[in-house]
Structure formats: structure tokens, C-alpha cells
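quick one: riboflavin bound model?
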Amino acid sequence: MTNAKKVAIIGVFSALAFVVMYLEFPIFPAVNFLKYDPSDIMALLIAFIYSPSMGVLVLVIKDILFYLFKSGDIVGIAMNFIAGALFVLPAALIYAKKGRAREIFGYIVGIAAATGGMALLNLIVVPLYWKVPIETVFSLLPWIIGFNAIKFSIDSVVNYIIHRRVKKILEPTM
Ligand code: RBF
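yep, here:
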């Protein structure tokens, strides 16, 4: 694929991801600072169809755009990016276009990496960010784990259903 095509594809999918990130909504009232949005699906599609690094680039660009145009909260955006990368990278690296069993294993590892990694990171970041005791975060841990497990399970199911069709649509440009 030419560089011009790569730039075009990354541009289109980053823009799509940025727009759908506005749909963000909390899943659990106890942790309403954690919001679900479908934007990581755009990155996962590109990571599956083209390459993991192109998928991460989509994450970077949509998060920079969302920071500049909507949130202004660098901590929230950084957490969103790290969670997305912890999920997309293992899932796409394990899948690497090799069949349904590897694909499903990739999702499981991605969900586990993002859920486990973000549980640890929240234990460190939330006490610093809101000056609350770490015990408070421990009591929220089931909700934090549940949020990430649900978020990335939804993304996995949607990607599983649509990525082959999206690939067919993009094939004429490949
Ligand atoms: N997003 C996640 O997908 N998983 C997380 O574990 C997570 N932890 C966050 C912790 C804090 C303190 C903040 C401020 C945000 C966190 N986010 C996380 C990002 C959040 O869900 C949302 O996408 C961003 O705040 C942008 O609105």
C-alpha cells in the first residue's frame, strides 16, 4: 500500500473515531468518570485490516482531536489511550489474519490486558488525580474491572461481526 493511501485511511478512520467518541456515556453510576464510547472499534478495525501500528495511530489521532475539541482533560484522555492500546495491540498482534480461533484468543488476551492493566493504573492514578485514599479506589475496583471488561467485550463482539465486511468494502483501495 502506498503512503498516500495509508494517510487517507488513517485520516478517515481517525475522524470517524473522533466523531463517535462524542457518544460517550457512563455504564456504572459508582464510577461515572469511566465512559463507554465506540471509538476504539475504528482503531481495532484498522489494526485487523492493515496493521497494529496503524490502529494505534488511529487511537493517538482521535484522542488528540477529542482532547483539543471536547474534553481538555489530559489525564482522562491518556487513560482512554492507554486502555485502547492495551486492548487493540495484543488482539491485533495475536489475530494477524489467521482464523477465528486465534481471533477469539486475541480478544480474550486484549480484554484481559486492558482490564488488568487499567485496574492497576487506576489504583495509581485516581489517588493522585482526585487526592482520595487508595482504599476508596480499592472499594471501586469491582466497578472499574467490570467497566473495562464490558467496554472491551462490546468492542470485540462488534469487531468480530463487522471486520470482514469492512475489509471487503476497503479492498478496492488496498
Ligand atoms: N477509560 C477506560 O477505558 N478504562 C479506564 O480504566 C479508564 N480509567 C480512567 C480513569 C480516570 C481517573 C479518568 C479521568 C479517565 C479514565 N478513563 C478510562 C477514560 C474515560 O473513560 C473517558 O474515555 C475519558 O475521560 C474521556 O472522556
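Residues 24, 33-35, 71, 73, 75-77, 79-80, 83, 118, 122, 125-126, 129, 144, 148, 151 surround riboflavin (CB under 6 Å).
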